[in-house]
Amino acid sequence: MNVRRNQFDGHLRELAKAIIEMGERVEQTIARSVEALQEGNVELARRVIDEDRGINAMEDKIGETGVMLIATQQPVAKDLRRILIAFKIAGDLERMGDLAADVAKAALRIGQDGLIKPLADIPRMAGLVRQMTKESILAFTQENIDLACKLARLDDEVDHLHSRNLQELFMLGAGNADRIGKAMLLAFVSRYLERIADHATNIGESVVYLIKGKRPDLNQ
Prior knowledge:
With 220 residues, the chain is mainly α. Helices cover 87% and strands 0% of the residues.
């Protein structure tokens, strides 16, 4: 019995390791997508878009590992919740990767034509969502409920920056046909980052559910 339990615990550690690696990959993708936007680096933007396939493959692998564990080990209670939560977290991370690729696609469309304004709020948002990505995974691996709940406060900061950013972009684009297209693309970028923050907060909710067995709403 102890041998079987030790083997199962080893598989759970491998599952957690895969989640950590996927989170790190997503965090890097967020950073590179915003770097491509700031620098007008179309080659970097293309690499970010191409790398999204790798993130999708990581989600598939986590899903396959979890299904294998459920089928062969028949886990119950918190062990089962841990595997199901790993599925959910992988799904949120995959969507975060998609949104980072969307940022890169916007950077590709803007290209080297230049931005309509120096970026301020978007890099700040990117820094916050990268922090949220890192801390959401840390909350999962450490089963740290305080860190999970902290994500709600960081999400509020991202929401505030997103709202302020939209107001400024609307003012810059209003009545100016040359600027409105780029203003809209930057507004989309802001929205993508805001959505990444929501998914990181979802991971925090999953961590609380793992620990308490009840799912809170941290996105209120």
